[in-house]
Amino acid sequence: MKVAKFGGSSVASAEQFRKVADIVCSDVERRIIVVSAPGKRYKGDVKITDLLIQLADAAIHDEPYDSVLEAIVKRYEEIARGLELSVSSLISHIADDLQQKIDTYRDAPDRLMDAIKASGEDHNARLMAFYLYSLGLEAHYVSPREAGIFVTDEPGNAQILPESYEKLKDLRKRHGVLVIPGFFGYSLTGHIVTFPRGGSDITGSIVAAGVGADVYENFTDVDSIYCVNPAIVDHPRQLKELTYREMRELSYSGFSVFHDEALEPVYKAGIPVCVKNTNNPAAPGTWIVAERNHNDEPVAGIASDVGFCSINISKYLMNREIGFGRKLLQILEDEGISYEHVPSGIDNMSVILRANQLEGEKEKRILDRIQTELQVDEVHIEHGLALVMVVGEGMERTVGVAAKATAAFAEANINIEMINQGSSEVSMMFGVKEEVVKEAVRALYEAYFSSHIHSL
Amino acid sequence: MKVAKFGGSSVASAEQFRKVADIVCSDVERRIIVVSAPGKRYKGDVKITDLLIQLADAAIHDEPYDSVLEAIVKRYEEIARGLELSVSSLISHIADDLQQKIDTYRDAPDRLMDAIKASGEDHNARLMAFYLYSLGLEAHYVSPREAGIFVTDEPGNAQILPESYEKLKDLRKRHGVLVIPGFFGYSLTGHIVTFPRGGSDITGSIVAAGVGADVYENFTDVDSIYCVNPAIVDHPRQLKELTYREMRELSYSGFSVFHDEALEPVYKAGIPVCVKNTNNPAAPGTWIVAERNHNDEPVAGIASDVGFCSINISKYLMNREIGFGRKLLQILEDEGISYEHVPSGIDNMSVILRANQLEGEKEKRILDRIQTELQVDEVHIEHGLALVMVVGEGMERTVGVAAKATAAFAEANINIEMINQGSSEVSMMFGVKEEVVKEAVRALYEAYFSSHIHSL
């Protein structure tokens, strides 16, 4: 049994719906379909979700919203017409449903926003089920409530409740193709609550784990995952296979394929993921699995992200002071700061964190606290740091991986501000100045994937 | 004004005493002399301090100690005779003093051990002062109590009390050459308390800081500090100059030149240190200073140490869990464990620590606590790790330092288990298996100091 999730661009138009139907019909194992809201059809197009946010904003601020509501309904109507479906009842249902949600949650803006946003996926799932049914398939729309997707009650940041998985098992007993909207679940008090960013991927992952699927197929608009950001390197190498851990490291820093939470349910259930292209389903796609044979390719990919800073602290005899590191991290925890890495020498320690956490007075306050409470010799912040991650399960047993990276930096005349590689880890982190991050990524790509001239 | 400390081998015999006298007489700025107890005169010789420990042990256990007491007195007598001093009163004073200390502290073994150990330096300082005086110098023995070296009252682990520095200033007003015994101070309750390992260096450093010396000269038996352990690399390069921070990183891991606490007082007072050879005082020695010009030589030295282990922890979505690192360090702190480095990836963290801290049940208990309290996916310990440190103030601004190191490892076919280099740090840490640590050090020495063929 396969669970197939189709992303926004895969369900953006009638033409895309037809591709999805072909994909579903071509394999009887594709028994559960999770759909996003209609995404962009072309560059510059507006996603339904963005229109829905406009709608909710207007309603919350008591501004007129008729035209945006109309634009939303029209998107579905266009899809339905393109599929030659009789649509009047469905379309009037959408308009009524949106209006009813606005009326219900007029005094609860967070709830209103969540309910309206979630409707994008919900209506699209209904439309998809209707279309598949019209093709002669036994297709059923299944709401997240019926499926059993129960979540915590924090608008916009739903977390799955463990009891959901027991309920989701029952979907195995259902006949036909089930179409479930992505992006949201229901709280135990009956409210619609959306998942954080990447929500439809999370739904697909939860459903796949719940039913114990053989594979979780994630249909998108690229043939595969690339080993490096294609916006930095032209036509980079495609990945056939990578592990959950590699994917997580990559998605964390600059790879927008999956939100980092999305893979947790399938990771825990040990269900392989296949990323495929709705527009070219014959391409093999990229498999995300528990283990891969990495003898040939110790490095899976290179990721990067900007916007980091480093708090650098020095104190003579720091390393003899039991509790120093713990007290430092306690200050950050008190201030609600999460950090990425803590490289250290004998008498100094750096804390790498996302700089956007230090807005306003916070930076000064944290530096003052470190100075006063830890009695350090010196503390200062270095801004404008980028992190570049070389990711690969095979690295830890391979001689020369670090040598290739550092030689590539040296040849490109890039200074390494920081290096961090732990025992049994799947990534090697380099800190560089933001200005040189693209050069750094290109240099690493050259070293690992492009040429063998530089190999040591 | 210079404070000159003479180590054990520099004051081991009459011949060595003469060299010290020549050194003292050759520079009128050498106004304060700190001496160790007589050390080894040849390979296989016994240090006075070891004899004193035997004496104290025997007295504590009510065993006969006449022969060892006699051997101790005889060492001083030989030195005195070799210097053609009239010695009878001095020698009988030593025997009486040791006997009196045994009688006084018969019921306080810790005190007895400290008092007896400290006597090695004390009697040697008296003898040195007497000898210098006999040469016509205005030399005075000054006891630590008279000098103002007041310390905490923990036998064998004295820490200087801040008020000492005020008192030590008065030594500037004294005339002649002052001879102070190293290794111990007096608690405020009047007891002799010895410093931890490297105690005479600590005394010299404290006195130099207290009197605001122009330089703290540390006389030993080598011409200079080497850039790498001569037991691993034959005839390594001598260092002309290094910074306090570099010295501290080096002495921490495998360089036995200074105990890591010894330099703190001069570091804080900004007093330069010169390491010189008593047997070859014309050699320029090695200077330890606050800043050095490191344009030519970004790397100062290479140090290594064995006996480390790594606790490796992984947990999916670890990096989203605010407080995870703090809780982990809290467990270690509860268990009285100090750690060296905490390299981390997105979902994993390693803690590097000295393995001798995990004796007995502790290892299992710590792993259990991490598993239970932090709900990690996996935790295990990797034993047999060595750390190799590349140390140098210039590294952080120099492209290619890391490349040289990692290329050297790759060429020597050595796998790097860990790398740790923080922003604005003075060292780069590599973790390797203990079996290959010497090869690793030699490979790095080749890369940085020996040849320029491999340079990038």
Automatic annotation (TrEMBL), chains A, B:
EC number of the protein: 2.7.2.4
MF-aspect GO terms: aspartate kinase activity; ATP binding
ACT domain: residues covered: 390-456
Binding site for ATP: 5-8, 220-221, 226
PROSITE patterns found in the cross-reference section: ACT, ASPARTOKINASE
Pfam families: AA_kinase, ACT_9
Annotated Gene Ontology cellular component terms: cytosol
NCBIfam families xref list: asp_kinases (TIGR00657), PRK09034.1 (NF006540)
Function: Catalyzes the phosphorylation of the beta-carboxyl group of aspartic acid with ATP to yield 4-phospho-L-aspartate, which is involved in the branched biosynthetic pathway leading to the biosynthesis of amino acids threonine, isoleucine and methionine.
Protein name: Aspartokinase
Organism: Thermaerobacillus caldiproteolyticus
Organism phylogeny: Bacteria, Bacillati, Bacillota, Bacilli, Bacillales
